[in-house]
Automatic annotation (TrEMBL), chain A:
Species classification: Bacteria, Pseudomonadati, Pseudomonadota, Gammaproteobacteria, Oceanospirillales
Transmembrane regions listed in the UniProt entry: 246-273, 301-321, 382-402, 469-493, 499-518
Record bears the keyword Membrane: yes
GO BP terms in the entry: amino acid transport
Membrane topology of this protein: Multi-pass membrane protein
Keyword tRNA processing appears in the UniProt entry: no
Protein name: High-affinity branched-chain amino acid transport system permease protein LivH
Main location: membrane
Taxonomy, superkingdom: Bacteria
Keyword line: Amino-acid transport, Cell membrane, Membrane, Signal, Transmembrane, Transmembrane helix, Transport
Automatic annotation (TrEMBL), chain B:
Keyword terms: ATP-binding, Hydrolase, Nucleotide-binding, Transport
Superkingdom as given in the UniProt entry: Bacteria
Name of the molecule in the record: Lipopolysaccharide export system ATP-binding protein LptB
Lineage: Bacteria, Pseudomonadati, Pseudomonadota, Gammaproteobacteria, Oceanospirillales
GO MF term (any one): ATP hydrolysis activity
Pfam family membership, one: BCA_ABC_TP_C
TrEMBL record, chain C:
Record's protein name: Leucine/isoleucine/valine transporter permease subunit
A Gene Ontology molecular function term of the record: branched-chain amino acid transmembrane transporter activity
Subcellular localization: Cell inner membrane
Gene Ontology CC terms, in alphabetical order: plasma membrane
Organism of derivation: Halomonas lysinitropha
One of the Pfam families matching this protein, by short name: BPD_transp_2
Chief localization: membrane
Record's keyword terms, sorted: Cell membrane, Membrane, Transmembrane, Transmembrane helix
Mode of membrane association: Multi-pass membrane protein
Membrane-spanning parts: 67-92, 129-151, 158-176, 206-227, 255-274, 294-318, 330-356
């Protein structure tokens, strides 16, 4: 029965809004739907405006939907039969439609037979306010908030009193605040200086445009106050955009950290240059894609399962590379670099041949799409937030493995003194394999995360390998904390530079910066000191 | 006052007028002089208030347990490591702390590393050629020609170190002991004033050790080179040493003849272990 | 005279003899044998061989720094491309008003981008002597600045490899930008003539081929002279024991810088000879994968021998031409496989095999043959 609650006061309010006397209430029960719609299909926009008013004051239960569909261009009329229908989908040649009067299924109609009931911008504005007012009475809080937001800047004198009543009976604070602002804009338009106080700090663009026009007010006091409020708002906006840049920077940085942290283990701890690291990332991403192919319709489950699967696939691939190539090139880092580069070419071509040279799209599960709204000017996309969190979790796990487990202890022992560790009964070969598997597995995890942000293709890894090396070298080889700090800060630097330099130039500047930085501090941000480091 | 008197001295050249590569001034006796030198790595004091004086032409042995700071001391003298505090003088004119490694090397301080590092891909002869004191800038090196004088000098050193027969073979095929001698030969090619030699006999056979002892004692002497040897092998030290300095935890623990320091109870405690009887075991 | 020194070496005389004989043979087979005869060498093949020879010169330049100095540059493609761009800029200016838009000064792509005037760095490239000077000076200057910074801070080994790769990557990104004024994505192309010779005629193509061969011979002799001098022995010393060399009083960083700059200039010359033969220069020459491919040529041929680099460049590029013609998909497999096999099973390359076969026949040379220990040992320290 919400329609009654919604429509009756709404109609009353709308009548005020439109400057009509609520006289036509008698019509409402007669259900002359066809006639009302007929009048909409008028040749002139003025006539249509009148027809819209007529529909509103009719109080017909169907009017909400009619107006909505009219606004969306879905309310159409059959050319021959004159039947009014609502188009559900306008993709192909034949459109599925429902009857506009009964809302019952009316089969499909050829789009050639249908005529849209056109509207112009003036009508659009009228419709939006009318719908907003109607929506102020719905039960859904989000709808009411949207409706209130819609009213910002479109309040007329007759609406003021009814809106006050709505505010008084409204439970939701946010709706009340928005409506107060809507009223304040109206008061400001009347030249009321106190209204500005109510608008301060709002980040809504309509509030800003209202304040903006107020700065051109004839009353110097109002103009000054509006300018001051506007300056304050712009300050907040700058902070917001700063926060946004920081977020994007951290997000990019977390990707860099994920891509580089596996490298920090294999390169930093083992001293092995693995140019195929990027392709291990790619394998992780393809694992996610394959998992989704295996579990169609369950992208969320597939993604969660991909985390261990991606780790395993990449780790196994890593072990294969270690056993087949790297172990023969111990202590020859430059040769290792070349050989693993060859491996990376082979892996890339393998994916191109076996799967496809084209990019594959990995679906994001529902709980990862959308965004988290911090305030009206700032919302954080969820997938990036997840990747950021994931990167931190992976980092924390790695730290735990290196600090708290037997493997970590053995890895550190072998790193510092191979011969000594061996003589103490540590099987250095086994440690090498485990370390390489760990580093490669983490690359796989990076791939799983990356599949949520970008397309999965054979070149995916190539795009990250140089960046990853830069991060590791910048952070200081052999230092996981350094990798974290370096990755995040490079991400942020990149995003800060991007607005004024452009994406490509920003990347170039960052590369040049790192090249120069390494000249200054060849051992990175957090160098290992002392004799051992110089070997 | 000494400044005024130095002004009156007609032979005196102002210090700032002395070119950096001028001959080392040993009129006052010592050729190497370390005073209150300290250095630490990550909070660990590798060298702690070290004072050491080496006289011109002296053969000095430096011993000490692992971690006593022997290698770090060498690093400081050759400019590889900068001390946190203290001063290091070569003769009474050259402040080594203001110079970099090549400058110090060209002053006449030669160093032999623990691990023999010769250029294995080059022949013994070429190793000595590269080590020779010569104009080491790029273009002179590019256009350098082998003169009779150079050849004679190389042959002379080859004879000193006893590797004449192997002169054209790659240094990579030399035995461990031979590499050590080649290293010493390379140092000699630079006509150094001070030789720093790090563990010369580690891994050598008995005969090689004897041969090395002869070589080293022949090198040191007034007007020739001063030699500083860092060594673990007590027998070897006893066979060559004039003066022995014992380092412990980055500073000098004892100094004197081998017999003197060997009977010093503090040395016995830190170097030979708390119980002297354990040495036999 | 140290430059004449290599002519006393049997191996160098043999190399030069074979090279010049090949040049002469190709010339004769192209000019004297009628088309259609099975022994005829077409103009297309001549140009292809000319391209290989410019690659060979590039490989020699890389071998000079990698084989003798132990510096694995993954950015030599950048020097090659810069030399190529310098040549390309000259060739663009030579087009004059014969371009699509008919502008007497501005190249077509600048007219297309609505540029009013030539950027300052394009000035002077209409004069051949200036352009040819820049072919060497621009890569040389980049190598000088980059090397000065890197070697002064003792950045060597894998660190240097990685930042040279970053350097060429950054340059690639930069040259892709239209704003740089080098034709962006498309690069420089549609060349017409070089020093008044029409680039599309067979005679010019043959001339370029011979010029490239002669340049390779000269570059080879220059590198050989450097390697055979005392400076060459110092380079090997730097390669095998950098710290030790420094203790002998050599300013290692200056020697590294000198050889690096010479090598970059040679790479620039190679690029300049490459561009008129293939008819285009674009940013893909800066791509890291190309630079690393050059290293493979040297590794396959056998580093530290110079002639090995030439053999490697010719072999790999011939294989590439054949493969990409017959089964393009397999090329990356083959290339990747070569990287792995050469580094694991053939660390001394084809030249190592040759030296093994012809031991004592003039290929023996102390500094090159004892690669049994590892060149990059220093880098791991």
């Amino acid at each position: 029965m919400w329609m009654i609650r919604a429509v009756l006061p709404g109609v009353w309010l709308l009548c005020l809004l439109l400057g009509l006397a609520p006289t036509a209430q008698a019509q409402q029960q007669t259900g002359q739907g066809q006639a009302l719609l007929e009048s909409l299909d008028a040749p002139s926009y003025d006539a249509k405006a009148e027809a819209i008013e007529a529909i509103i004051v009719s109080g017909d239960e169907r009017s909400r939907r009619w107006l909505d569909e009219l606004l969306g261009g879905k309310l159409q009329r059959h050319k021959d039969t004159g039947r009014f229908v609502i188009v559900l989908e306008n993709r192909s040649r034949n459109w599925p439609v429902i009857d506009a009067l009964t809302f019952e299924d009316a089969g499909e109609m050829s789009r050639r037979d249908l005529d849209r009931i056109g509207i112009n911008n003036a009508l659009r504005g009228q419709l939006q306010s009318a719908l907003a007012v109607l929506d102020l009475y719905t039960d859904d809080v989000d709808d009411r908030r949207d409706a209130a937001r819609e009213l910002l800047g479109s309040v007329d004198a007759p609406m003021v009193e009814p809106l006050r009543e709505v505010i008084a009976s409204e439970d939701d604070a946010e709706v009340r605040r928005l409506l107060e602002q809507a009223l304040a804009i109206h008061r400001l338009e009347q030249g009321e200086i106190e209204a500005i106080a109510d608008l301060e700090g709002s980040l809504n663009s309509r509030v800003r445009s209202a304040l903006n026009s107020a700065t051109r007010s004839d009353d110097p006091l109002v103009a000054d106050a509006a300018s001051a409020a506007l300056a304050d708002i712009e300050q907040r906006l700058r902070i917001n955009s700063g926060l946004e840049t920081l977020y994007f920077g951290l997000s990019l940085g977390s990707v860099l950290v994920l891509a580089a942290i596996g490298l920090a283990i294999t390169f930093g701890v083992m001293g092995v240059i693995n140019m195929a690291h990027g392709e291990l990332i790619m394998l992780g991403a393809y694992t996610t894609w394959a998992m989704q192919q295996l579990l169609p319709g369950q992208p969320g489950l597939a993604l969660v399962l991909s985390i261990p699967a991606g780790f395993l696939v990449a780790a196994l691939a890593g072990v294969a590379i270690e056993r087949s190539v790297i172990q023969f090139l111990k202590g020859r880092p430059l040769e290792t670099l070349l050989a693993t580069f060859g491996v990376s070419l082979i892996l890339q071509q393998l994916v191109r041949t076996v799967i496809s040279p084209q990019n594959r799209t990995v679906v994001s599960p529902e709980w990862m799409s959308g965004s988290l709204m911090i305030n009206e000017g700032l919302s954080l996309t969820l997938n990036r937030l997840f990747v950021l969190g994931f990167a931190l979790v992976v980092f924390a796990c790695l730290m735990l493995v290196m600090r708290r487990t037997r493997l970590g202890l053995e890895v550190r022992a072998v790193t510092q003194n191979r011969a000594m560790a061996r003589s103490m009964g540590i099987r250095a070969t086994r440690v090498d394999i485990m370390t390489f598997a760990l580093g490669s597995g983490v690359a796989g995890l990076a791939g799983v995360a990356l599949s949520q942000l970008t397309n999965v293709g054979p070149n995916l890894g190539q795009n990250y390998i140089i960046d990853s090396f830069m991060v590791v070298v910048f952070g200081g080889v052999g230092n996981l904390w350094g990798t974290l700090v370096a990755g995040l800060s490079l991400g942020v630097i990149n995003q800060v530079l991007e607005p004024w330099a452009g994406a490509v130039l920003a990347k170039i500047i960052v590369l040049v910066f790192i090249i120069l930085f390494i000249q200054k501090r060849p051992r990175g941000l957090f160098p290992q000191k002392g004799r051992a480091a110089e070997g | 006052m000494s400044f005024l008197s130095s002004l009156a001295d007609r032979d005196h050249v102002f210090d700032f007028l002395v070119p950096a590569t001028s001959p080392v001034d040993v009129r006052h006796g010592p050729i190497l002089y370390l005073e209150d030198v300290s250095v630490s790595f990550d909070g660990f004091k590798a060298i702690d208030d070290l004072n050491l004086t080496i006289d011109d032409g002296e053969l000095r042995c430096i011993i000490g347990p692992n971690g006593a700071g022997k290698t770090t001391m060498m690093d400081i003298i050759t400019g590889k490591t900068r001390p946190d505090s203290g001063s290091v003088w070569f003769g009474s004119r050259h402040n080594l702390l203001t110079m970099n490694e090549p400058e110090i090397a060209s002053l006449g301080i030669g160093r032999k590393f623990q691990k023999p590092t010769v250029f294995e891909a080059l022949s013994v002869f070429e190793n000595l050629e590269l080590a020779m004191a010569a104009d080491k800038r790029i273009l002179p090196t590019l256009t350098a020609r082998m003169t009779g004088e150079v050849r004679d000098r190389i042959e002379e050193v080859l004879e000193t170190i006893g590797l004449e027969a192997l002169r054209n073979g790659p240094a990579g095929i030399l035995s461990h002991g031979q590499k050590q001698w080649l290293e010493i030969g390379m140092l000699l090619m630079q006509r150094p004033r001070l030789l720093l030699i790090d563990e010369p006999v580690a891994g050598m056979t008995e005969q090689e050790m004897e041969r090395t002892a002869e070589l080293l004692t022949g090198l040191a002497g007034k007007g020739k080179q001063s030699v500083v040897v860092v060594e673990h092998d007590m027998g070897f030290v006893r066979s060559i040493a004039g003066t022995v300095t014992v380092l412990h935890q980055g500073s000098v623990l004892a100094e004197g003849s081998m017999d003197q320091v060997a009977s010093d109870p503090r040395v016995i405690e830190v170097y030979l272990g708390a119980d002297p009887d354990e040495e036999a075991a | 005279m140290w430059l004449m020194q290599p002519f006393n070496e049997g191996a160098t005389r043999l190399f030069l003899g074979v090279l010049l004989a090949c040049l002469a043979l190709v010339t004769v087979l192209h000019l004297a044998v009628p088309a259609g005869h099975p022994l005829h060498v077409s103009a297309y093949t001549v140009t292809l061989l000319g391209k290989y020879l410019s690659y060979a010169l590039l490989a020699v330049a890389v071998d000079l720094v990698w084989g003798y100095l132990g510096i694995l540059s993954l950015g030599h493609g950048a020097f090659f491309a810069l030399g190529g761009y310098a040549m390309g800029m000259y060739l663009m200016r030579q087009i004059g008003d014969r371009g699509t838009y008919g502008d007497p000064i501005l190249p077509d792509f600048m007219v297309f981008l609505n540029w009013d005037s030539l950027p300052w760095y394009w000035l002077g490239f209409d004069m051949p002597w200036f352009a040819f000077l820049m072919v060497m000076l621009v890569p040389g200057a980049l190598a000088l600045v980059f090397g000065f910074l890197a070697f002064r801070s003792r950045v060597t080994g894998v660190y240097l490899s990685i930042i040279t790769q970053a350097m060429t990557f950054a340059l690639m990104l930069a040259f892709f930008r239209n704003e740089m004024g080098f034709g962006g994505n498309n690069g420089l192309t549609d060349f017409r003539e070089l020093l008044g010779f029409d680039l599309r005629t067979d005679a010019t193509r043959l001339g370029l081929f011979i010029a490239t061969g002669v340049a390779l011979a000269l570059g080879y002799v220059l590198c050989r002279a450097i390697v055979a001098s005392k400076l060459g022995r110092v380079s090997v010393a730097c390669r095998d024991a950098e710290a030790r060399t420094r203790f002998l009083g050599y300013r290692v960083e200056r020697f590294q810088l000198f050889v690096f700059v010479v090598s970059a200039m040679l790479a620039g010359v190679a690029g300049a000879l490459y561009v008129p033969q293939v008819g285009i220069i674009n940013p893909s020459e800066f791509s890291p994968i190309f630079s690393i491919e050059i290293v493979l040529w040297v590794a396959l041929g056998g580093r530290g021998t110079l002639y090995g680099a030439v053999i490697g460049a010719l072999l790999v590029n011939y294989a590439k031409t054949v493969f990409t013609g017959v089964m393009p998909d397999a090329w990356l497999f083959a290339l990747g496989g070569m990287f792995v096999l050469v580094t694991v099973f053939l660390p001394r390359g084809v030249a190592g095999l040759l030296a093994y076969r012809f031991k004592g026949q003039g290929f023996k040379r102390g500094s090159n043959e004892t690669l049994s220990h590892d060149i990059s040992k220093e880098a791991s320290a």
